[in-house]
Amino acid sequence: MTAMSAPTAPQAHPDSPGQPEPQSSRRRRGAAVPYALLVPAVAILVLALGYPMLWQTWTSFLQFGLAQQFGKPPTFVGLTNYTRLFSDPQTWAVVGRSIAFCLVNAAITVVLGVLIALLMNAVGTVTRLVLQVAMLLAWAMPVIASMTVWIWVFDWRRGIVNWGLTQLGLDFTNHNWLEQPLSFYFVATVIVVWMSVPFVAFSVYAALTQISDEVMEAAALDGATPRQRFFAIIMPMIRPVLMIVTLLQVIWDLRVFAQIKMLQDAGAPTASTDLLGTYIYRLGVGSSDFGMASALSIFVLILTVALSFFYVVHLMKEDS
């Protein structure tokens, strides 16, 4: 009688349900998850921004005016729109004013935002809440509503600014703040900075709350002055936030439109007060030259990337 052979154990298959998944496979799958999560956001951006950008780029190479709005086929003109645009001295005057306005407003906004954030970090709870509510109201107010108030404030007949300065002994009776370009941009700067400071202040204050009190107390015990603590401890710690808010302010102030357009409608000369946003509007809607307006819009996109290139490279270095 032959002895029965012992049954052999089944060979484990690496992909069988009962076996643990290899570590390399889990690592590859985990590395792909963030990219998969980005797919919906990227798809929305491509659909929402890709088509308008492609259409505008193509239109910049066409003669697209009022007749094309009523069905006449556009004519391909190549780089003619760009040649006409940048051979016009008015274009370069607008570009220069826009860059200067953008950089000055962004610098003033960031400095004031940092100072207000430091103030909120230093005062008591009640004062801080009052400041936060006031800035939140200024930030949340619709542009049209706030511009209506600001135009009344600087009105040359009934404006409270002229009245207040006159009461102080200065002759500002019927002074038109919007008539001269310099005073026009002063008013525009006041308005744009007033609307933008709350965002910077809230962002920087949030960064300040992440700085450890123990670190600041240790620096004070070591004899560091407030100035030394600010530049040696606070600034390095909030630098990433400052870089981001500065980049956003440069982009927003370069594309400012509603404030300038409403001030122009209140009685300012357009030729000497146009910025890039209002100049594109005048070319497109005002003159029905949508090809030229599209060409200038593409230039603004390139200019925005050029102005923000340094900040983007620095942010990438900080992240790495």
From TrEMBL:
Cellular component GO terms held in the UniProt record: plasma membrane
GO biological process: transmembrane transport
Residue ranges, annotated region (Disordered): 1-26
Family: Belongs to the binding-protein-dependent transport system permease family.
InterPro entries found in the cross-reference section: MetI-like, MetI-like_sf, UgpAE/MalFG_permease
Protein name: Sugar ABC transporter permease
Organism: Micropruina glycogenica
Transmembrane segments: 32-54, 98-122, 129-153, 184-208, 229-252, 290-313
Coiled coil: none
Entries under Gene3D superfamilies matching the protein: MetI-like (1.10.3720.10)
Superkingdom field: Bacteria
Location(s), subcellular: Cell membrane
Domain ABC transmembrane type-1: start-end pairs: 95-311
Main location group: membrane
Record's bilayer topology term: Multi-pass membrane protein
Keywords assigned by UniProt, alphabetized: Cell membrane, Membrane, Transmembrane, Transmembrane helix, Transport
